[in-house]
């Protein structure tokens, strides 16, 4: 009986921590902002769906306890780190090149829409190639899990966090695809693309050089 308030407090704290971490500016949010402003709402939602599905993959690993086995297999984590770091550096190169393009050239390039399934795959790959995402989920699950918590409780925690993620990423996609946001984006396009290049570049270098 006395464990319920503590459990509720732990769960709410975990949800709050996940919301702050998800809503704060990062590679995924900045990418959604850029895609929403250039390619529209459908493309932004497709990219956001890929990010959420990637997060769901790491969440299920953490909730089912498979994360410990993955972390123990150091070779897989090292390979994932290298691949993820190189992919982030490639995204940094693309964002930097876009920042140097004239406005007319960038607008014309944005008009050549990719298929939604390719945009979705990019969002999925962005999240799957970040091994630190699983560390975040391990922390959330451990924080909200009681000593006698079972699989249903874990799935409840995961479902709540994924709902928060869908709300946050969907809000970014909807907000930054409005006409006003697109006009603002065009006025600060180079600064935003340059910021993306810096964020992706630092994240990629950090992955490649980290020992953990």
Question: What's this entry about, in short?
Answer:
With 212 residues, this protein is mainly alpha-helical. It has helices spanning 3-23, 27-39, 41-63, 67-72, 74-100, 103-111, 116-128, 132-144, 151-175, 179-209. It has one domain (27-209).
Major beta sheet summary: none
Count of helical stretches: 10
Q: How confident overall, as mean pLDDT?
A: 75
Number of strands: 0
- Write down the Rg: 18 Å
Give the fraction of residues assigned to helices.
over 70%
Backbone shape: globular
**What string, H for helix and E for strand, traces the elements in order?**
HHHHHHHHHH
Strand content: under 5%
Pairing-aware structural class of the strands and helices? mainly alpha
Uncertain spans: 1-7, 104-112
Distance between the termini: 40 Å
Total separate domains: 1
Task: Provide an overview of this structure.
By secondary structure, the protein is an all-alpha fold. The chain has one domain (27-209). It has helices spanning 3-23, 27-39, 41-63, 67-72, 74-100, 103-111, 116-128, 132-144, 151-175, 179-209. The protein is globular, with a radius of gyration of 18 Å.
């Amino acid at each position: 009986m006395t464990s319920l308030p503590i459990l509720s407090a732990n769960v709410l704290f975990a949800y709050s921590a996940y919301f702050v971490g998800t809503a704060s500016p990062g590679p995924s949010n900045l990418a959604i902002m850029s895609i929403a402003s250039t390619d529209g709402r459908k493309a932004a939602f497709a990219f956001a769906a890929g990010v959420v599905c990637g997060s769901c993959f790491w969440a299920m690993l953490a909730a089912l306890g498979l994360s410990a086995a993955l972390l123990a297999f150091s070779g897989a984590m090292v390979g994932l780190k290298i691949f993820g770091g190189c992919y982030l550096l490639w995204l940094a190169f693309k964002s930097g090149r876009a920042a140097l393009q004239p406005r007319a050239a960038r607008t014309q390039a944005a008009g050549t829409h990719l298929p939604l399934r390719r945009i979705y795959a990019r969002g999925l790959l962005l999240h799957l190639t970040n091994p630190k995402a699983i560390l975040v989920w391990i922390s959330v699950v451990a924080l909200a899990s009681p000593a006698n918590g079972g699989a249903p409780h874990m799935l409840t925690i995961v479902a709540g966090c994924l709902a928060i993620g869908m709300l946050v990423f969907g809000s970014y996609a909807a907000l930054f695809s409005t006409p006003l946001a697109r006009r603002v984006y065009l006025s600060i396009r180079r600064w935003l693309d340059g910021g993306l290049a810096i964020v992706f570049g630092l994240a990629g270098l950090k992955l490649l050089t980290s020992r953990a």
